[in-house]
Amino acid sequence: MKTDRYLQKDVMDELRWEPDINETNIGVAVKDGVVTLSGYVDSYIEKVNAERAAARVDGVKAVVEEIKVKLLSSYECSDEDLAQAAVSALEWDVLIPKDRVKVLVQAGRVTLKGEVDWRYQKEEAENIVCCLRGVCEVNNEIIVKPPPSVKPQDVKAKIEGALQRNAILDARQIKVETEGSKVILSGIVRSWAEKEQARQAAWAAPGVTQVENKIIVQPV
Question: Tell me, what CATH number does 117's domain have?
Answer without folding.
Answer: 3.30.1340.30
